[in-house]
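ok so I'm stuck.
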Amino acid sequence: MSHQDPRISAMFRRDCAAAIFAVVVVWLIYAFTFWTMRHVFDAANLTIPMALLGVSVLFLNTAAIVAMIRHYGEDRAAIYGIDIYYLDQLRRMRQDKGAVK
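replied:
not stuck anymore, here's the structure
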């Protein structure tokens, strides 16, 4: 595609920002949960296993989001092009509906 629709880049940037925000929120929730539960983990001698499990889950979630962003970046014209096509069709249908015939 020689001329890329600027809406594709905007949609991609918005999706990347949302994905990064979601990962940061997950990290913060895990940190908060671990911090508030640390006394319970200590009492049950589970601090290290719970920390390892939490880090594993965070690593896998982060890796999945990074892979998704890379894939969307590589195929953004195909992925977002379909969305834009249908958004344009919907816009045309709404304009035609409001037009006087």
